[in-house]
């Protein structure tokens, strides 16, 4: 079976619209002045409840929306793709200023990042850190400041924030179906082990994509017992994924049909290098999620165990 890049289409972000919907017009005798600075010039626009349609359009166009972007890590491939998409969308809108903060893969940095956004008076925050475990902290800070919150792929709560992105579980099911076809064609319809390495701090949604793969395998005729499935927290780090994979291969020398799944594409590099270093290419297959450049590079090579990625189309998020 040829290697494949499976696509999951994602919804575009609508932060400016969300901000607009949350605003209300003040009474006529207490109209506020909206002041923005742009290109060195200060413009003051009076907001009135009875402005004609053309006046409203001019007022909206003159306002600059400041949006905070909370990122996972600036050197992380998915984070770079998100930021590229957000920048392109902001440039196209023409009235959006982006303020960036980076968690550097550390959940403890989320809270101070949000404090900085609030001090800078952002109009909304887009969170692309996937840090679901500390998400409630972000929600409470946004609630207290009255700032809309949009999160990408990993939900922070069920009431306040807006969730944009991929159906994580269905992404996993798609992977499972493809893997089932491979197993039927190449491994006589059976496996020895399914090893799932994922970012535990990303919350239940990240685990859902891994669970979806397991369910997808079963639904498509591949028997998988509980003692054949291993779950590991790779902290979304390539090097840790590499070590987990090496250790597993060392402790299971007789296994010849092992599926390794990682929650992102860069971690798949860790799997592939570990499998090659252990001389177990013929015993393993690897898949991941993201559809990023690292996945494409692996797919171009015929001499490794990597067979596919489910694309989240992150360049369309902006």
From TrEMBL:
Where does the record place Low complexity bias? 37-48
User: Which Pfam families would you find in this protein's record?
Assistant: Peripla_BP_4
Q: Name one GO molecular function term.
A: carbohydrate binding
Biased region (Acidic residues) positions are: 49-59
Protein localization: Cell envelope
Signal sequence annotation? none
The superkingdom of the source organism is: Bacteria
Which CDD domains does UniProt cross-reference here?
PBP1_ABC_sugar_binding-like
Keyword tags:
Signal
Question: Which residue intervals define the domain Periplasmic binding protein in the entry?
Answer: 83-305
Question: Sorted alphabetically, which Gene3D superfamilies does this protein's record hold?
Answer: 3.40.50.2300
**Cellular component per GO?**
cell envelope
Coiled-coil spans are none
- Predominant subcellular localization, coarse grouping: other
| Positions of region (Disordered) | 26-60
The entry assigns this protein to a family as follows: Belongs to the bacterial solute-binding protein 2 family.
Q: What is this protein called?
A: Periplasmic binding protein domain-containing protein
